[in-house]
Amino acid sequence: MLKSTFFGALLGLSLASAAPMLAQNKYFFPAATAGSFDPAVPTPEQFLGYPIGSHYTRTDQIVAYLRELDRVSDKVSLRVLGTTFEERPQVVATITAVENQQNLAGLQQARRALIDPKLPTPDYRKLPVVVSLNFGVHGNESSSSEAALLLAYYLTASTSPETKQWLEQAVVTIDPLENPDGRDRASHWFDQNKSWPNVTDPLDREHTEAWPGGRTNHFYTDLNRDWLPLTQPESRARMAFFHEWYPNVMIDFHEMGTNGTYYFEPSKPFSTENDLIPRATYEVLNVHLAKYFAKSLDDLGSLYWTKEQFDNLSPIYGSTYPDFQGGVGITFEVGSSRGLAQEGTNGVVTFPFTIRNHVATGLATVRGAVEEKELYLRHQRDFFASALTDARKFPTKAYVFGNAQDETLTNKFLALLLQHKIEVHELGKNVTLDKQEFKQGKAYVVPTSQPQYRIVNSLFEELTTFHDSVFYDVTGWSQAHAYGLAVSKQKNTGLVQGAPVTAPKNLAGAVQGGQSSYAYLLPWSDYNAPRALVALQRAGIVTKVSFKPFKAGSASQPTEFGYGTVVIPVAAQKLPADSVFQIVSRLSRQHQVTFTGVSTGFSLGGIDLGSNNVRTVPEAKAAVLVGTGTTASEVGEAWFVASQQLGLPLSKIEMSNFGKAPLGRYTSLVLVGGSYTSLDKAAVDKLRRWVQEGGTLVTLKNASEWAIKQGIVKEKLLIPANGGWADTTAFAVALAEATPPTPKVTQRPKPQTTFAPRRADFVGQEQEGTRAIAGSIYLTDIDITNPIGFGLTNRRLYVFRNGTTFLRPSRNPYATVAQYTASPLVSGYVSRNNLQQIRNSAAVVVSKVGTGRVILFADDPNFRHYWHGTSRLFTNAVLLGPLLNLPDGPASIAAEEE
Length: 898
Fold this sequence. Notes:
single chain; Aminopeptidase; 7-stranded mixed β-sheet; 38 strands
């Protein structure tokens, strides 16, 4: 009685307490008639014990309801795809007619003719259209997962002839929880802070989630940007399922600000669309479905908008990746209540209202896909055939990639390509291409002439030509640049190409030379070497790092060991030699790295193992400041790198606890981008003293600006002020030099500065777009002899940039570790003024402060967990930074060497 009364008040409806289920069905399914649902199928309200929209449903309850549908109906099968970091299941419900349900594998096989141009054209009448409805990739956009329950109920329980036809002609997959961990973080917040009656004040605690909010997953990753890089387990499991079906229509259900109404595609023509994609995707498929969406919302009297915002530019989203696979991906956004009810410019927005809009457009999606089934099936077949045609016209016929000194990272990139179902081949022989050596067995060939040409292009190519200058997110997304591997583009179709690769290599670690009574060596160039170092330290092994290269081994077969080589002297250990060997052997297998046992410290070339340039590495004890003011995604990235890549416990210190933090226990402290104004003078003084007494401070993006402005470090910024530069010398030099190239804008190069009415969410964005750094890729020159650059084998390093922190190169010639080149832009959009400031500025600067040091990054080296080329600099900063004793100049270097 209380629940139905509350729900009635919430909806503003007169619901009879004797029939809450019928009333709720009528609200969410207004076109359905009484008695048109199978009573053997429980409604979500009957199963959960409360009306949908009166409470935020936990992930375990959502999974349990779908399991119940699977139990009571032969139309439904529920599958667990994987688990999250917090051990919550990822599930997908497949709903279709019973005869289809009994032949899912056969239907998948028959649909292969749509994606493989070599197979005969199929009979489209006999194939189902596949519709994927995906919910809750942003955990606090919570109405979507509630709508998933209602849509699953409707498709299972409805007895209408139309629904029967849908299930005969379609396979509908429902992913109710794309982000289970974020979902529960958000639902707990909203449920814990709700009131009776509802508090609609936007400033009420219910509507203002505490940091970090429920948008992201466990490591604060935005899973909606992870469809291409696949860094998270949720994304990898979802991608494997996607490639079983290749959906023809895929919807991503979202929420936007409370003042918004409802958004569906088409998006902004041309400017937010990718030229690789056939125009029919945007101009035919998208427009066709939009008519169904519009009618469904018109019938409810709900307002909506289209064509103004959001990107279909890159395949990083769940609503764009299907466009690159012959389907059509679409974003739905509903104005959010972020709580049970909240005031907005359109009145009070209630949770049930937002859910109802999603239910309406979800049903409209199935209706539109089924009614024009052949249109979508034929498009997919034509899409993959046209990919081969486009590839034949493209100058590059193959990409060769690999790094013989880093098989781990090479193998990691290979695994990514295979997850995207890309055709990859072994390299047939050792070759030198573009002055880069590629070795057979340690390098691979990716032909462009394949059905996945468009994804191949997206993973490898640069893009600097755009139709507009306003973007929703990044404009550079090449994974080849992010991994930092050697890549060569080949126009010769006769390039030696070995056998197809079907799985990543099973890399096995080893201890070459067997047990040693003297020392073990580990090259730092392997991606897993830092992780092995941390594991060695945690096992109680004393470790050293070489600051200069040397040669070891036999005179007939000497081995080069580069900067950063880990040295494990056996006699220096507290453990017996047998135990040291057992630990080294175990870790070599566990982390797939190769140690070399040596019997002498007398090198064949370069320094000996007893040199002062082989320095003991203190066990890493790292921390990062977190909480209100810090950028949650960057905190999550640092946390992820420490936890998942290094196996390093990273202390996350709340900003409010900094005053009582015993900084002396930490070797390194990380400040990500954000605002640190909550740290008072006493806190700043405390931080400064810790650095001066030997601490290593690592700052990213505008945290680097903050450290400079607080006087913690004596470096300088290049800051634009009133259209000029704070550093007038640098500005004069820039003017004297040649104007750098700028990305081409083909449609609207310079929007007029006007204040025409536009959506409140995006006011001013069109004017600001031309002054943006829209998530783009740049080339830097990196000092690989500096400990921050240890492990890299090439001075050319690609960095990702989406901020406006401009560091001036240090006056100390040894302190600028990485510097942007004179023509740095590689891929993406940047305004002319910002590009002028980026060129020749510093990307990474190390500054000596007392006996400590500050390592300043202008950018985020860990961007979205996949920028492996620069995340190596971050791990070096955390692990090796405490060893940096920066020389003041050539004189001090000479004195040190003497």
